[in-house]
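Translate structure to sequence.
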């Protein structure tokens, strides 16, 4: 097979993919709190905000696996083009919507666009990365998500005004700006997919029959990884959607809420920059269990009426802890899946994420309606505590404490056609390891 040009971790395709993801994720991260503020301006209570937040994930939940199967047997780049169009359109039309049902519908379009983009982008990284570079390339790719999550909430907070009577107009403006930011992704969305499907050192994908969902889910460690990913993403999602509600309840300005959300994102980015030494020190199982357990306690603390300074400190540590789950769950799923079902496996992981984004906000909305705006954070604490227990009981993955350089296998240690669950050499998480919803 002819090698794919530009498959190296520092080549232009990966840099352009990171830039594209930064714009797309910034648009979504700007739009999510802006949607909450606009819903509040249109008369929504905490329960209605929870429903709108859940709709964002509902349509993606239904189509994730079919999209993954299509990508396993076709090109990935068209999903990025469609995804950006849906994100941009969903943001802009949410800003123009004048009713809560319309906002919920366009929020669902935005969520579908994000799903299309992420499946396509993750599949490109998996295909164009040599096996020994996959952890590093996934980590670099996810820096785009962290940058978007860092910039988006601040931009939303600066545009949205808490002045009496102004929020309906300014939140609509923020959504229109988010749509324009998403459209900027097209500037770097060219030749991201190589002419050949795989990087040097990676065997061609085995065509073979489609691997069943049951077989993928039975792969060793995959269910635990999916649940951890679900819990961590649900926590991030509800923080983004409900911190504005808490801010309104406690008299915290939208600009301050935006800064707090960006502080959480900056801490998550910092975590991914030091992922390699953390893995070398603790190993994957201990690291996942410890950070999920700590995040559970911190989410519980958010339910207390903390001053802004204490709230910032809690969110910074919480953001650091939440930076672990997505990176490790992504590489685990890719390594466990058969070579001709990796996009489907990634889609299953995203399906789990979206299921959490449907169920958790719905539960959060019910909790907020019954017990107040801070109650969803107690629910999140329970979910993260369950994920910590599951992570602690999951089988070891070979990333026991050792120097990162010693954990890097050569291409010969992998076989793209291996069945999930076959013994593999441990992966290396080099550079800022990361993952995305």
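Result:
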């Amino acid at each position: 097979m002819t090698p794919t040009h530009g498959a190296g971790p520092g080549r232009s395709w990966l840099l352009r993919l990171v830039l594209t993801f930064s714009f797309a994720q910034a648009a979504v991260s700007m739009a999510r709190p802006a949607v909450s503020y606009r819903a509040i301006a249109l008369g929504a209570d905490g329960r209605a905000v929870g429903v709108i937040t859940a709709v964002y994930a509902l349509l993606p939940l239904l189509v994730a696996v079919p999209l993954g199967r299509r990508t396993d047997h076709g090109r990935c780049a068209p999903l990025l083009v469609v995804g950006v169009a849906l994100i941009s359109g969903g943001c802009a039309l949410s800003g123009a919507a004048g009713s809560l049902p319309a906002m919920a519908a366009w929020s669902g379009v935005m969520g579908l666009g994000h799903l299309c983009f992420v499946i396509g982008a993750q599949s490109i990284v998996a295909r164009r990365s040599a096996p020994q570079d996959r952890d590093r390339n996934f980590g670099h790719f996810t820096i785009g998500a962290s940058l978007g999550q860092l910039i988006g909430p601040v931009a939303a907070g600066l545009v949205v005004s808490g002045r009496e009577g102004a929020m309906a107009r300014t939140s609509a403006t923020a959504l229109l700006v988010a749509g324009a930011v998403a459209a900027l992704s097209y500037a770097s969305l060219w030749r991201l997919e190589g002419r050949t499907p795989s990087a040097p050192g990676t065997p061609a994908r085995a065509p073979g029959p489609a691997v069943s969902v049951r077989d993928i889910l039975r792969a060793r460690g995959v269910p635990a990884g999916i649940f951890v990913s679900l819990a961590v993403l649900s926590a991030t999602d509800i923080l983004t959607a409900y911190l504005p509600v808490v801010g309104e309840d406690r008299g915290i300005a939208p600009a301050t809420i935006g800064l707090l959300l960006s502080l959480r994102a900056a801490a998550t980015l910092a975590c991914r920059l030091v992922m390699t030494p953390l893995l070398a020190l603790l190993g994957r199982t201990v690291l996942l269990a410890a950070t999920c357990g700590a995040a559970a306690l911190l989410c519980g603390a958010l339910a207390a009426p903390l001053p802004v300074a204490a709230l910032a400190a809690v969110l910074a540590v919480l953001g650091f802890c939440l930076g672990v789950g997505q990176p490790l769950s992504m590489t685990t799923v890719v390594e466990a899946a058969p070579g001709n079902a990796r996009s489907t496996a990634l889609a299953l992981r995203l399906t789990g994420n979206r299921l959490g984004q449907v169920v958790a906000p719905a539960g959060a909305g019910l909790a907020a309606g019954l017990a107040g705006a801070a109650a969803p954070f107690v629910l999140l604490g329970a979910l993260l505590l369950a994920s910590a227990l599951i992570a602690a009981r999951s089988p070891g993955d070979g990333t026991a404490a050792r120097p990162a350089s010693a954990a890097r296998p050569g291409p010969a240690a992998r076989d793209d056609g291996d069945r999930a669950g076959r013994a593999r050499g441990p992966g290396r998480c080099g550079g800022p390891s990361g993952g995305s919803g």
